[in-house]
Amino acid sequence: MDRATEHERPAKRVKRDGTEAASTPPPSSHGNEDLDMEESGFVPDNNAAHGSDLYLDTVNRVTLDFDFEKVCSVSLSNINVYGCLVCGTYFQGRGRNSYAYAHSIHDDHHVFMNLETTKVYVLPDGYAVSDPSLEDIAFVLSPSFSRSGVALLSTAAHLSKPSYDLSSKPYTSGYIGLNNIKRNDHMNVIIHSLLHVPPLRDFLLLSRFGGKQPELVKRFATLAKKLWNPRLFKSQVSPHEFLQEVGRASGGKFRLETQGDPVEFLRWLLNELHRDLGGTKRNNSSIIFSTFQGKVRTETQQVVVRPDAENHKPVFDIDREIKATTSPFLFLAVDLPPPPLFQDAVEKNIIPQVGIHTVLAKYDGINTQESRGQLRRFNCQQLPPYLIIHYKRFTKNNFVEEKNPTVVNFPLKGVDFRDYLSSAEEHPPPAYDLIANVIHESVAGTTRDKENTVWKVQLRAGSGENEKWFQIQDLIVEEIRKEMIFLGETVIQIWERQKPTVES
């Protein structure tokens, strides 16, 4: 079905009056006039020999790329845009005075698809084409998913059926590369992480957003469907269309050409999606809150300095007033212990390590922190189905931003968080499994070097004995051994609450 564009093509169709269809007026300079044949008063010659198979051999799937913004290549309008299925260029309208019409004559390219409806037309004649051989193109442009198919994406069955692109290269949908257009790798790892959280992923894959939905939500759903598409022409996806909208919606805070912080992007994206999906302050008012929102209790007490306690750490005094507040959270931030300031010749290459429960002790309701004359202690009242943890690896001072190289040790399954819950007996079983791990890599040293920073994400695939882990860095996708996962400088993790076992 794929033929190179240079293959010999059929001659242009000739109208019944003997005049060549190419003898038409030039396109309007405005590009938005006569967008449709019917509006321009041009009626296709429906009595002519049907050309369903006349130009379809000129369609070149290798040139088709629907990952970029769907705007006319001439007028830059996003209204009524058609894609040339021969060269992949976008044009506005298909009437006599449209750019697509002129392109069909001047470049001898005749098959066009409406990028919104996926309907196909042959120009300049203007008749619609309905041919099963074009269905794969429509599916790449606008993938669709069934509930039964979506239910298999987190199972071992999904891994057992690889997909193949046009070059017969095998790939596993969902675990494919995202193009690093300029310096957007810090956003790529967040996109991957969120689109592998089953409730959010399934919600986006099954969505049918209309014209009234905010553009950010629609483009994120479109990107999710492309990432999980089992029928891609290329085994990679570009997030360009989504990230263009991110730049607009964030007022330029997150840009393609600037290296940024994935934690800041995650915080912004979660809140923006929640708001765009109609979320409020109420619990479970959006898929974001129902998936990621928990509650933490904070107790605060003023520090009282006593002369006899000069070298003693301030502690809570139960005889004085303690103020308690409960706040929602979308992820928990934890501090890493400071690395040793000096090391001897033997230990200079040793990287400090710490267990996950050591850093999470901040939320046990016992340990205290002192800040600005106040003592604080934290305790979780409710943990979400999917818990996001941010390890605060970077700290700023007046001169540089320092990096803490401490490695966090953690098991992949069954991490028990009951010690950080105020009422563990009233909470669903607080055992969690890791599903996504974002790591930071840079040149050696203790300062943050954004120019030489690399962000990678490690993702769980499948379940049970057939479980695998993939590491993705932009377009590089490779399977990784489980034992290697905790060795990186973890910055963000997403944990999935274990489902309670059903007793027989």
TrEMBL record:
GO biological process: protein deubiquitination; spliceosomal complex assembly
Principal location: nucleus
Residue ranges, annotated region (Disordered): 1-43
Keywords linked to the UniProt accession: Metal-binding, mRNA processing, mRNA splicing, Nucleus, Spliceosome, Zinc, Zinc-finger
GO cellular component labels: spliceosomal complex
UBP-type domain mapped to chain residues: 51-148
Molecular function terms from GO: cysteine-type deubiquitinase activity; zinc ion binding
Keyword field contains Cytoplasm: no
InterPro entries named in the record: Papain-like_cys_pep_sf (IPR038765), Peptidase_C19_UCH (IPR001394), Ub_carboxyl-term_hydrolase (IPR050185), USP (IPR028889), USP39 (IPR033809), Znf_RING/FYVE/PHD (IPR013083), Znf_UBP (IPR001607)
Basic and acidic residues composition-biased segments: 1-19
Pfam families noted in UniProt: UCH (PF00443), zf-UBP (PF02148)
Superkingdom per UniProt: Eukaryota
Keyword Hydrolase: no
Subcellular location: Nucleus
All copies of domain USP, residue ranges: 176-498
Name of this protein: Spindle pole body protein
